[in-house]
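Incident review: delayed structure delivery

Summary: a single-chain prediction request sat in the queue longer than the usual turnaround. Root cause was a stuck worker, restarted by the on-call engineer. No data loss occurred. The affected request and its eventual output are reproduced below so the record is complete for anyone auditing the incident later.

Affected input:
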Amino acid sequence: MLFFYGVGAYTRKKTPVKIYRTCSDCQTYNSLSVIPVFKYAHLFWIPLFYCGKDYILHCDSCGLYYQGGGVSVDKSIAKTIKPPLWMFSGLIAIILFLSFLFWDRKTSPERNKKQALELVADPQKGDVYEVKFDEKEFGLYKVNRIENDSVYFLVHDYAVANAYEVYQLGEGEYSESYSIEVGYPKDDLKAIVNEGYILKVRR
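Output delivered after worker restart:
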């Protein structure tokens, strides 16, 4: 059976720490080394965060290994034994991802507005505008034709209650449900964007 989450262990054998203690087996002094065993939580084998450590003592003289619940080291030595950074890789990735989502949510309105101002300056047939009718009603306009200084839009037959759901109107079986046509002077479109009624333009 495969476990996609749990606690893993990593033994750092390459960098043992010498301690001044007598081996209980061969009685040799100053022959013991500490081998740390780091524990970490993982999800789908991706390390999330460090969650504790144990120790193995190894005698360089007789080769005996001490391990188990009774093995301990001085606090001064324990403080010098740090877990590897990769044990926090999952947590770091989650923090970065959440930070990106926060940044994207905070900056997307301004970025969408900047893009909309560029596109409404040169409207083209088929452009889809995400529009705000009021605080609880949002819909889609699609450029149907451009005549002289006026732009004529087809209005989507349905509306949604949240701005982040507007894109869904352009998908599925009702994606082409446009019927009513309305027109606006081309020069007014930038003002409508600045007033916050055109949220985004997709080309």
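Verification: Residues 23 and 29 are 6 Å apart (CA to CA).
Action items: add queue-age alerting; document worker restart procedure.
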